[in-house]
């Protein structure tokens, strides 16, 4: 099992290629869920020091796991879209103290969507379990591994915020590493829980 720094050091070219494959896989919008699952599978293979053939494995995973990854893979994009809609509505409507409960609810929503997806997408991609079992295991891991989930959310959020704040200057990073790096952060924190599901 390779650590975050070992994966970055040993697979940095593969992470760039994986990011490019992910961006290409998302061009037809309907393949975004399958591309997320394929991204998680590729990162898990890197962490487990398995042979990684980025484009061949990625697009094979997109093709073979398309239907299976559709529902788990839709949770993150739809959940994030609802979060941003709620955020805009909260900023426009509420003021002062009335805003705090809404902001707290939105942050809780963001955590639940992020953490649930962090487990549901790779579990659906890796295991031949019924989706009901995948969702049950993802919910259990969301509740049981709270601190790991929060740490992953904060790191991914910090990377994304840094990218947004330095927008025109670091924009090439989106093309080169952002999505694969965020997936590596998530899988580094989630891998222990995923391994428990595979063993159990």
Automatic annotation (TrEMBL):
Keyword Transmembrane part of the UniProt annotation: yes
Transmembrane feature ranges: 20-44, 65-87, 107-127
Keyword tags: Membrane, Transmembrane, Transmembrane helix
InterPro entries: DUF624
Keyword Magnesium: no
Protein name: YesL family protein
């Amino acid at each position: 099992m390779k650590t975050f720094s070992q994966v970055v050091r040993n697979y940095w070219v593969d992470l760039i290629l994986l990011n490019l494959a992910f961006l290409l896989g998302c061009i037809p919008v309907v393949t975004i869920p399958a591309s997320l699952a394929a991204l998680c599978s590729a990162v898990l293979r890197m962490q487990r020091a398995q042979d990684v053939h980025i484009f061949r494995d990625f697009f094979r995973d997109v093709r073979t796991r398309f239907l299976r990854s559709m529902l788990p893979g839709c949770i993150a994009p739809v959940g994030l879209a609802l979060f941003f809609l709620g955020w805009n509505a909260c900023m426009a409507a509420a003021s002062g103290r009335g805003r705090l409960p809404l902001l707290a609810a939105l942050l809780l929503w963001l955590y639940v969507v992020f953490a649930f997806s962090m487990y549901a997408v790779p579990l659906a991609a890796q295991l031949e379990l019924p989706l009901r079992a995948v969702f049950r295991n993802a919910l259990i891991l969301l509740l049981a591994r709270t601190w790991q989930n929060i740490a992953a959310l904060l790191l991914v959020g910090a990377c994304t915020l840094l990218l947004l704040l330095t927008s025109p200057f670091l924009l090439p990073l989106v093309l080169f590493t952002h999505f694969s790096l965020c997936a590596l952060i998530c899988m580094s924190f989630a891998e222990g829980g995923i391994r428990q599901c595979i063993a159990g």
